[in-house]
Amino acid sequence: IKDPSAGCTFRNPIELNIPAGKILDSIGAKNWAVGSAQVSCKHANFVINLGNANSHDVCKLISKLQQAALEKYNILLKPEIKPLGIFDKSEAIIWTNADETVKNSFIITK
């Protein structure tokens, strides 16, 4: 992926033995976008920055992807990327619901 990104967005879920990118591809997530954050058309497990994406755009897109995977496969995809910064509670939930080890580590809610 040549576009700016943080790398793979989600860990591969061991429960399904299907890579996260294939799960996202199967739900048609390529090119989904929120603001300037977009799912790559080359690999569905990469969220790219189209130029002006901010953390709010990325969090909303990640949440949308998690919800779609939950509805189709009954699995909550766990982010592989690590959050750093100040998030409101609606944004922080995507990290803390997916991984108890992240809770209170470096997410600050306002």
Describe the fold and architecture.
The structure is a single chain. It contains three helices and six strands, in the order E-H-E-E-E-H-E-H-E. The chain has helices at 20-26, 55-73, 89-96; strands spanning 5-8, 33-34, 37-39, 46-49, 85-87, 107-109. The longest helix has 19 residues, at 55-73. The N and C termini lie far apart (33 Å). 30% of the residues are buried.
Task: Give a short synopsis of this structure.
The protein has 110 residues and is of the alpha+beta class. Helices cover 31% and strands 17% of the residues.
The overall pLDDT average reads 84
Largest sheet composition: 4 strands, antiparallel
Tell me the strand order in the biggest sheet.
Answer: 1-4-3-2
User: Beta-strand percentage?
Assistant: 15-25%
* Number of helices, counting only DSSP H or I runs of 4 residues or more: 3
What Rg, in angstroms, do the CA atoms define?
A: 13 Å
Computed structural class: alpha+beta
Tell the overall outline. Answer: globular
Kindly state the number of beta strands.
Answer: 6
End-to-end C-alpha gap: 33 Å
Outline the low-pLDDT stretches.
101-108
Helix/strand order, N-terminal first? EHEEEHEHE
As a percent range, the share of helical residues equals 25-40%
